[in-house]
Fold:
Amino acid sequence: DMKRNFAATFAPLAILGVLGLAACTSSTSPGTGTIQVRMTDAPGDFDAVTIVVEEVSVHRGDNADSLSGWEVISSGAATYNLLSLQNGVFATLGSTTLPAGRYTQVRLKVGAGSTVTVGGIAFPLTIPSGMQSGIKLTGSFDVPANGLLDLALDFDAQRSIVITGNGVYKLKPTIRVLPFSTAGTITGSVNPVTETTVYALQGADTLQAATTNSLGQFTLSALAAGTYSVAFNPTNTASYRDTTLASVSVASQATTSL
Structure:
């Protein structure tokens, strides 16, 4: 069963880093550019997942282990309900002007106060001690001089939250990183209208997921250009069967309608 397999597969960290450039007019000085970081999420079997983001920063240069070269994009605690960031909805974590050039790591500091709500009860979301310095997402991203690098963080709450044997919820983040300049989107609707979870697949890998809204519509965003299978799993399995569409093409900065 695809839905059960998707929900039960927990990866400690799945990162997709893709080089992308986006030209635009800007008021930045020569030798500087702008970076913006936005976040979305996939469906999860929770009432809510509240993440407190204390800081977002990026590292300039190839030596990601160096303590120098970090540029802060945003600081100060901000709270996000990941489950509200679905079907093409993004939250802007921050943007700033910084030196143009190659950046090789995004760091996301998640703080105290993060919770997961199950059955109407909010439980603390434990951050493992090894991630106290921040969730480090590796990749290779260029900030162009007088231009914009717009990064999407695709947070998968279902795969990122693990419940231990003693009932403690822990964060083991699965996050994809993708520049919007290289990303495309799949949109469509399900008929008859019935709650359906939609997955964008490449081989055995689920790269995006969404749940249809009250009109049967869905959006699978932040997808790298390529060919996907799109699987539809209705909640009402007594009346409707699973359906998969093969060879669905996605192009950069384009929307494929189904």
Observations:
- The first strand starts at residue 32 and ends at 41.
- The longest helix spans residues 2-8.
- The CA atoms of residues 71 and 158 lie 30 Å apart.
